[in-house]
Amino acid sequence: MGELFASYNILGAFGLTILLAVFSAIGSLLIGTVVAIMRVSPIDFLNKVGAFYVNIVRNTPLTLIIVFCNIGFIVNLGMSFTNDIARNNIIWAIIGLSFYHAAFVCEALRSGVNTVPVGQAEAARSIGLTFSQSLSEVLLPQAFRGAITPLGNTLIALTKNTTVATAIGVAEISGLMKEMMEFRADLIIVIFLLVAIGFVILTLPIGILTTRLSTKLAVKR
Amino acid sequence: MTEAARDQNPTGRPAEGDEPPLAAASTKEPMVVITGVNKHFGDLHVLRDIDLTVGRGEVVVVLGPSGSGKSTLCRTINRLEAYESGSITIDGKTLPDEGKALAQLRADVGMVFQSFNLFAHKTILENVTLGPMKVRKKSKAEAEAKARELLARVGVTTQADKYPAQLSGGQQQRVAIARSLAMEPKVMLFDEPTSALDPEMVNEVLDVMTSLARSGMTMIVVTHEMGFARRAADRVVFMADGEIVEVATPATFFTSPRSNRAKDFLGKILSH
């Protein structure tokens, strides 16, 4: 196993996996919150746009989205952030992962919004808060607390889904795994276990943390 | 009839303002003017041509059987319920449809709900300071000083740092009243404020409401508390089937209701 670590940059590849996961998590939380706000807003047009987004993106395979980010945006439309091809692919992978998981974040948040009794919004409106103030002060803080567990699920899925980025040549851990297995067929089981355990180490804390938070921050009614 | 005797002198104290007659209301400057308001829930006509004027400083208690539309009327006044036709003005201003203007008008209309609706993720103090800080743009210090004063007034001083779920129903409702008062509203709406309370907590809330009424607050109160209606109301509005059937002083209404529906209603609730 020592020789694996010596001849392959396993930690570096896991580092890239973490980088993809962290930035995509931030991106998907931001985009997902915006879409969720659209879906709960009183404006019919925004509802429809939000619903359309979720239903299209959620039901499209992630590989398709990631590959489209490369072939569609980079190759066909020439939308590049930098001349460094590897970095460009990483950035587009993060964008693809963010927009894909935003649909799930939106639905997790919406399930959180449903845990907030109607009376909370009525009370917020009746003291004169505007729609956006009601959202930011009363509804979303409670919705986030109610959505912690499903959000945790989404983040775990996101972490594992970063492996799809290998489809456009991002050198994260699953790409390296394929490479290692090809050259060290004698160690296939070790390599597989190494990567699998690596993912468990990454995702287990997310589950533990969100379970703790969901009980700790639960809104008592 | 003992009921009648109590009506004459409900508190045992000399009755104050022996004749707050109908005429008195109309001489007051109007605060809430409801004209020809209609509303349907699907096929159900819940508000039928409602006309009602509530003067500044007046306390109006709305009575009626369940399903009579009294809660809906109350919620219509700050547009938690939309209505189809007619108009509602508050202190001369017409209720806007949506948006910032409506939010501003709502800030002037306090609302106390049956189920308290304190913000569950905020402390008692934060519940009371939120509106003044976000809507009235007061400083935190100023809002907190005022909040503590109001919490003292409703008798929950020591609970300021707790969360709503840690308080009893009666305490929560008194905090809800403080939260509304913190906005310095022109009128306060109460939508069955004691209906969700355990019996032993009803009076602590009614006491706060009674003292509020005495302080000159304009109040519209939907309730089943006949004692409160007798004690604090200037006028009683009796609703049935989405209509205002009768408007009278409490003394007149409870002793000699004119309509059969009011007689029937009072018969059912006062006979036991």
Summarize the SSE layout with pairings.
The complex is a heterodimer of chains A (221) and B (272).
Chain A: H1 2-7, H2 10-40, H3 44-58, H4 62-76, H5 85-113, H6 118-126, H7 131-146, H8 148-161, H9 173-183, H10 188-216
Helix pairs in contact in A: 2-3, 2-5, 2-8, 2-9, 3-5, 4-5, 5-7, 5-8, 6-7, 8-10, 9-10
Chain B: H1 2-8, H2 22-27, E1 30-41, E2 44-55, E3 59-63, H3 70-77, E4 85-90, E5 93-94, H4 99-107, E6 109-112, H5 124-134, H6 140-153, H7 169-181, E7 187-191, H8 199-214, E8 218-222, H9 226-232, E9 235-240, E10 243-248, H10 250-255, H11 260-270
Helix pairs in contact in B: 5-6, 5-7, 6-7, 7-8
Overview of the structural elements:
- The complex is a heterodimer of chains A (221) and B (272).
- Chain A has 221 residues and is mostly helical.
- Chain A has a single domain, classed as MetI-like fold (Orthogonal Bundle).
- Chain A has 10 helices and no strands.
- Chain A starts with a helix and ends in a 5-residue tail after the last helix.
- Chain B is of the alpha/beta class.
- Chain B contains 11 helices and 10 strands.
- Chain B has a 6-stranded mixed sheet, sandwiched between helices.
- In chain B, helix 5 crosses helix 6, helix 5 runs parallel beside helix 7 and helix 7 runs parallel beside helix 8.
- Chain B is globular.
- Chain B starts with a helix and ends with a helix.
- Chains A and B meet through helix 6 and helix 7 of A and helix 4, strand 6, helix 5 and helix 7 of B.
